[in-house]
Amino acid sequence: MTLQRRTLLQSAAASSLTALATAAFSQTTSAVPPEVARGLPGGQRLGSTRLRVFGFSVYDATLWVEPGFAAESFERHSMALALTYLRDLKGQAIAERSLVEMARGGQFSPAQSQAWLAAMQASFPDVRSGDRLTGLHSPTRGAEFWLNGQARPGVADPDFSRLFFGIWLSPATSEPEMRRALLSRPNA
């Protein structure tokens, strides 16, 4: 086999692998989880992205929204956010970090902080790579949660839900690139 032919074959193989990896990521982020289909009938996938911290992949995030969703008033719309974890994490750490991030979006009392932390500790178990945590925001009812399609305790507090989903969608988020990606309609 000539060097030119071998280079062509290697290039074609690399292109095929890249296309397969892209298709696999697209399939995992675009398939409607059953809890989203039930909790947000007619919901549409808006955007997906991956959170990386210090070069480590933490989770893939996909945002599902109701028709008529407007990013500038995200808290007024029902939506679902699915996080597929790419590493093992303790539920306690997820809850504590969530509370810190929620504080970026608005103020809340020490009593709310304690109640919300306890509620998140009950809602968020330890996760393993491949687990999917899904949250459903209802502007009037609060937040519902699922782990791999199984219901978890929710938080029946619209203020909690607004600030929790604001972790990703508020202009005050610590991850503006993630916000931009989640709020971007896919090209395909």
How would you describe what is shown here?
This protein is of the alpha+beta class and 188 residues long. The protein has 2 domains: 1-30; 31-182, Chalcone isomerase (3-Layer(bba) Sandwich), CATH 3.50.70.10. 44% of the residues lie in helices and 24% in strands. The chain has a 6-stranded antiparallel sheet with strand order 1-2-3-4-5-6. Helix 3 (91-105) runs antiparallel to helix 4 (110-123). The longest helix is centred in the N-terminal third of the chain and has 28 residues, at 3-30. The N and C termini lie far apart (39 Å). Residues 5-28 have low confidence and may be disordered.
List keywords for this structure.
Chalcone isomerase, alpha+beta, 44% helix, globular, single chain, 2 domains, 188 residues
- Give the radius of gyration: 19 Å
Question: Based on CA inertia axes, which overall geometry fits?
Answer: globular
Strand content: 15-25%
The CATH class assignment of the largest domain is Alpha Beta
By CATH, the topology of the largest domain is Chalcone isomerase
Distance between the termini: 39 Å
Mean pLDDT: 87
CATH architecture of the largest domain: 3-Layer(bba) Sandwich
